[in-house]
Design a protein that fits this description.
The protein is built from 7 helices and 9 strands. By secondary structure, it is of the alpha+beta class. The chain has a single domain, classed as Alpha-Beta Plaits (2-Layer Sandwich), CATH 3.30.70. It has a 3-stranded mixed beta sheet with strand order 8-1-9. A two-stranded antiparallel sheet has the order 2-3. Strand 2 and strand 3 form a beta hairpin.
């Protein structure tokens, strides 16, 4: 089975936030609830940007602290939340060093509150007309519109990648055979700064890029071992604590 991971090329990324918009529409997120966040920061005299999805760590601290095992790691390497088990204790939000989890019952980040504009039906917290069909929801992996009182996060578009053919090394927007299985943020990236593939496959594009361009992981010294790698190049850097090279 594949061990899915992502590579983000910071030298190609333009900070356009197309990934944020694509993810929000694909996964029916509330305004301001960005599973694919793009952080802007100053480094010297330059304004730079830093995309930050869920890292889908090899050693996820969120899984360790979850008292109901609602947060768990799948065989394909993804970390997801079972909304049928989540009790909204927020321990995972505290344990995550990347700040990439959200609690649906919090005050809305953007007004008006879409939960009021598109009220739920007792099962869902809200039901906008552009949502995905309920038949495609998978609450055991945090896919769809969640109920009240649970935590949500990026799933690497689990509803897409879980349907990919066995043995595929990369999920690529430009490959007609894998296009429909590719995460929305990867498909939509205008400068092609995102890559998605099997970290256990030595022939995958993601593995080649990590090796050839010294892929780095955010806050790698914490021991979570993210499955999202950044290509920083010589002129770009990872903000905050500098990440270690793979294998370091």
């Amino acid at each position: 089975m594949a061990k899915w991971g992502m590579v983000i090329d910071l030298e190609k990324c333009t900070g356009c936030q197309a990934c944020s918009s694509a993810c929000q529409m694909e996964n029916t997120r509330m305004p301001g609830e960005n599973w694919q966040d793009v952080l802007f920061y100053d480094e010297g005299k330059d304004l730079k940007w830093f995309p930050r999805p869920c890292m889908h760590c090899e050693e996820p601290s969120c899984v360790t602290v979850c008292p109901t095992r609602a947060t768990y790691k799948n065989d394909d390497g993804t970390v997801t939340v079972d909304w049928n088990r989540c009790i909204g204790c927020k321990y995972c939000m505290i344990a995550c060093p990347y700040g990439v989890r959200f609690y649906m019952d919090s005050k809305p980040l953007v007004e008006p509150d879409v939960r009021t504009e598109f009220p739920g039906d007792g099962k869902h917290t809200w039901k906008p007309p552009y949502r995905q069909p309920e038949s495609q929801e998978d609450w055991t992996h945090g896919v769809g519109i969640q109920p009240a009182g649970v935590v949500s996060k990026c799933t690497f578009c689990y509803h897409r990648i879980s349907q990919a053919p066995d043995g595929v090394a990369d999920l690529d927007e430009d490959n007609p055979a894998t296009k429909e299985y590719t995460p929305a943020c990867v498909r939509t990236c205008p400068p092609k700064a995102r890559y998605f593939g099997d970290l256990d496959n030595p022939d995958s594009k993601v593995n080649q890029l990590i090796a050839e361009k010294s892929g780095t992981r955010l806050l790698d010294h914490l021991g979570n071992k993210p499955q999202v790698y950044y290509l920083a190049g010589e002129s770009t850097s990872i903000p905050g604590a500098r990440a270690s090279k793979r294998g370091g």
